Amino acid sequence: MGVVKLEIQCPETVNGIGLEPDPDWSFDTLLSELDSLEKTLNVSSSVPLPLAKTKSREFYGEKGIKRSSNAFVMRISDEEFEDNEGENEEAHDGGLVKVAQFNCDELYLSSSDDDSDDEPCLEVQTYLMNEVGLVESALFELTHEHQLGVKEEIRNRISALETDLMNESEKSFSAHTKVEKYSEARREVQRKFDVQYQRRIAEGLDNHLTAVQRDHELKSQIEERRIRSDAAHEEAKRREKAIQEERLRQEKAKAEAEAKLKAEEANRVALEAERRAAKEAAEKEAAKAQKSNTSKVSQTEALGGPNATVSGVLIDQLKGSEIDKTNKSHSAGNTLRAAESALNLERERLQKLKELDEINQSLRSSSNEDFGSIERHIARLIRQIRGTKDNVSTKASALIKIFNNPGCPQTISIASFAKKVVSHCESPDNAAFACGHVIVLVTSQFPQAMDLLVAELQRACIYSVPKHISYSKSAFESKEAYWKAIGYREDHGKIESSKDYLKRLESYMKLYGALVQTEVAGCQNVHGLNEGWAWLARFLNALPANIYTAVALNAFLQMAGFALFRKYKSQFKKVLNIISENFLNALRAQEDPELRPITAEIQSYLEDKKFLQEPEGRALQSSLLSSVMVPDSDYRDSYHQPNRFFY
């Protein structure tokens, strides 16, 4: 932007004030110099000049901001100053309007070569170049002064308003700050109150929940005590009911035993009568008696002669006492077929079992302890018996530990062991040989448990004695009574089928056969092969050939035949010959279709000489194999033999 240069023709000094011909002043410096000049003029003149100012001039922009300008040069001649002073005096004297003359003979404007940038400024101030008269100049000056005063007043008011506005803004900001602080303080107080209120609510809720929980606990305790009381009452009722049932069972067993004794007594009386009748009719029955004696002699020779020993009992003693006492006639009313020695042993074992039951009942009634958990533990251990050495050893050790537990009477644990073993043999997953090993390991430490277990087995299956009860209308009121006498079960007043009974009979005899042949190193089997040999001799001497005895004999041979042959060799083969010639012939002579399957199976056992082969499962496995846990079809068929004699 170009520079505006003003040149005023005036003397170099005015009233002793020298002016530089070409000063380089700023606009503020010029204003201050003009103020100084006016003060000097006012002091030197007796009449104040119309241009006199009591306040320094200040130029503001459109927005109240002081303006600044480039420096310019002003020259004033002495003649003009004097003429102006004289005219001012005249005007003052004549009452004329105060006029101030400002004359510029020449206005020199200089600009840079770039005129296009300065043209707007020159156009705005072109009036400075016009020459006007004194009046117009004074009027213009007054108008300009008035405008400046008005503008200055407006600026002052605007400035005051701006100041007031700023003050008000500051006050408003301060008030707003105070309000914010007050609001923040109120919020803080409110937050504290909320925290305290929430804390009180939480404490109240916690106290309420604690009280509710306490009430629930109290109610649950009351309910638990009530349940315990009801359970104890129910347990007492159950025990009382069990005691009553046991008493009824014992009475029933006693009545049955008395009935059996009466039947035996009747048999004895009938036998004596038969013997007397036989002596009187000796001549008539000579041929028949001779034939019978010949058959008996042949059996005695097959068993090894008159001096052969069977489990400590001489065969000639069996011939002279047991065979004569068991070979009875149905026409004389005889129903029980068994060796006298076997019946005596059965009575002794059953008596021990009865005494043990009475002791246990008195212990249960006098003690408040519940032994059901121990009995369930024993049952669980027996169900978990498998055909491995580790399993058998572990279960036997656990059972021996239970027997030695001082918290449970030994009579209760032994009785429970005997019952659970006998009942478990009915299960289809029963491992008879493994159970036999566990029984031998346990009874080697507690020998009294063997007689009790055999007693339980003989009470469940009469053919483990062995003995047989023949049907007679004079001895039994009905067929159902006879079936109950030989071991059929009754469920809800209905007798079980012969199929189920024979299946259980086979399971019992398999367990008995596995037990007598079990041999464990370092342990004594108190009911070993001698008892098995005696059972076989008593069975062949006393029991008739029918479907029940056939199933019992086949199951026993399947399990114990291999061990009996290893010990008795040729004597066992002679017994097998008697079975083949007498027992099987007696079965075939009945011509009963139901007997054909079991007859064929016994005949296959004899002809194929299966007694030379060790039964599968007899030797315990060293580890748990899948073939042991899940037998294949052939093993399952040969081991369980399901329904092979039912058609």
Automatic annotation (TrEMBL):
Single Gene Ontology MF annotation: translation initiation factor binding
Entry keyword annotation includes S-adenosyl-L-methionine: no
Compositional bias (Polar residues): 290-301
Residue ranges of the TM segments: 547-565
Disordered as annotated region, ranges: 226-251, 274-305
Localization terms from the record: Nucleus, Nuclear pore complex
GO biological process: poly(A)+ mRNA export from nucleus; protein transport
Keywords: Membrane, mRNA transport, Nuclear pore complex, Nucleus, Protein transport, Translocation, Transmembrane, Transmembrane helix, Transport
Family: Belongs to the GLE1 family.
Xref: PANTHER family: GLE-1-RELATED (PTHR12960), MRNA EXPORT FACTOR GLE1 (PTHR12960:SF0)
Protein's recorded name: mRNA export factor GLE1
Organism for this UniProt entry: Durio zibethinus (Durian)
